[in-house]
């Protein structure tokens, strides 16, 4: 029997909703993230923005750029720069494979979500391909059609 006071294993901090609108996500990968000082406390307070962030591969390391972590309110002089580059933790073989995909097939690495997993901060990294305008329109049309079908089913077949 499981303990009564056991917390859920995964708690989402932030999601990059714009990423799924702008890109086709071909593959998702869970990575760790290297944080300093009071950044974890700021994340627990929900002070992060993934909207304009991306990931580059430099010198065999994954580095997330453009991610904004708000400085901790009760922090001190040791608060870090909110937009600094942060290193992602992944196996060397995974980094090499992602680098090849980006070079050969023109994919982009985009952070999809940030969450706590068993007390550690994890970043879900997406191997993405950019959408064209007509792809975005097709997705919107599918979404609208699905909504109208659900509405019709909910109202016992009476279509408005």
Automatic annotation (TrEMBL):
Pfam families: SmpB. PROSITE patterns: SSRP. The keyword DNA-binding does not apply. Keywords: Cytoplasm, RNA-binding. GO terms for molecular function: RNA binding. One of its GO terms (cellular component) is cytosol. GO terms for biological process: trans-translation; trans-translation-dependent protein tagging. This is SsrA-binding protein. Required for rescue of stalled ribosomes mediated by trans-translation. Binds to transfer-messenger RNA (tmRNA), required for stable association of tmRNA with ribosomes. tmRNA and SmpB together mimic tRNA shape, replacing the anticodon stem-loop with SmpB. tmRNA is encoded by the ssrA gene; the 2 termini fold to resemble tRNA(Ala) and it encodes a 'tag peptide', a short internal open reading frame. During trans-translation Ala-aminoacylated tmRNA acts like a tRNA, entering the A-site of stalled ribosomes, displacing the stalled mRNA. SUPFAM superfamilies: Small protein B (SmpB). It comes from Candidatus Faecalibacterium intestinavium. The lineage of its organism: Bacteria, Bacillati, Bacillota, Clostridia, Eubacteriales. It is found in: Cytoplasm.
């Amino acid at each position: 029997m499981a303990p009564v006071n056991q917390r859920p294993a995964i708690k989402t901090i932030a999601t990059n909703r714009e990423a799924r609108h702008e890109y086709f996500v071909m593959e998702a990968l869970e990575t760790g993230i290297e944080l300093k000082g009071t950044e974890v406390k700021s994340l627990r307070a929900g002070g992060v923005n993934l909207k304009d962030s991306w990931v580059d591969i430099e010198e065999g390391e994954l580095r997330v750029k453009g991610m904004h972590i708000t400085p901790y309110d009760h922090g001190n002089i040791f608060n870090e720069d909110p937009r600094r580059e942060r290193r992602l933790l992944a196996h060397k073989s995974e980094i090499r494979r992602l680098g090849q995909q980006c070079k050969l097939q023109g994919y982009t690495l985009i952070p999809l979500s940030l969450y706590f997993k068993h007390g550690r901060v994890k970043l879900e990294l997406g191997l993405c391909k950019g959408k064209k305008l007509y792809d975005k329109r097709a997705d919107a049309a599918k979404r609208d059609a699905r909504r109208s079908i659900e509405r019709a089913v909910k109202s016992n077949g009476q279509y408005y």
